[in-house]
Design a protein that fits this description.
The chain is α+β, with helices and mostly antiparallel strands. The protein is built from 7 helices and 8 strands, in the order E-E-H-E-E-H-H-E-E-E-E-H-H-H-H. The longest helix is centred in the middle third of the chain and has 20 residues. GO terms for molecular function: ATP binding; protein serine/threonine kinase activity.
């Protein structure tokens, strides 16, 4: 939802989380901590303030006037290589910054990538993020073991880049989970001739099975 933040005299986005008995407050604390990193990296969503009541946690976030990357792709159907490379470069910087602090996003997709009013990307929605280690000065320091490494983010990034360049997903999302997994494991994405050889190779490296 949108709101007016009087301290900043501007529109802000408000993310509201309802507290429940099964709510993992460690995850909420971690998301709040990650959002503080946005103040030191322009390619991450940032929080201006965080409040809580007996029943709610409220994140006061920068309002991304450009909408989401998902809406941009749908509006233009697909991007030319130059446009896709521009957004890809900014996403690389954002992901590297997260990984520098041991943070794995784990849910990178166009809907979770915001655009500011100048069209620059902001990686957002850290509800599924996991962290191995936070820098004690930047993030107030706490540890957590995770079962996913950074390669998961880079593979997801490859899917995002493919979708930007073609307007489609590289693998069919239909069927059961096992059918989708088999499709990813046993099929190769279609690469249109409009892609430059260099950009095609870049995407193939990201989606390479390891």
């Amino acid at each position: 939802m949108l709101a007016s933040y009087t301290i900043k005299s501007q529109l802000v986005a408000v993310k509201i989380i309802k507290k429940k008995k099964k709510t993992d407050y460690h995850d909420i604390e971690m998301e709040a901590t990650i959002l503080r990193l946005g103040h030191t990296c322009p390619f991450l969503s940032r929080a201006y303030a965080i409040f809580q009541t007996e029943s709610l946690v409220l994140f006061i976030l920068e309002y991304a006037r450009g909408g989401t990357l998902h809406k941009l792709i749908k509006r233009h159907r697909y991007m030319n290589s130059q446009e896709a490379q521009f957004y890809s470069a900014e996403l690389v910087l954002g992901l590297k910054y997260l990984h520098k602090y041991g943070i794995i996003h784990r849910d990178l997709e166009p809907r979770n990538i915001l655009l500011d009013e100048e069209g620059h990307v902001q990686i957002a929605d850290f509800g599924f993020a996991q962290a191995r280690k936070f820098d004690s000065k930047a993030c107030h320091g706490f540890w957590r073991t995770f079962h996913t490494n950074s390669s998961a983010d880079w593979w997801s990034f490859g899917v995002v880049v493919y979708e930007m360049a073609t307007g489609k997903l590289p693998f069919s999302p239909n069927g059961t989970f096992q059918e989708q997994l088999d499709n990813i494991t046993n099929t190769e994405p279609y690469y249109p001739e409009t892609l430059t050889p260099e950009f095609r190779d870049f995407i193939q490296q990201l989606l390479r099975r390891r």
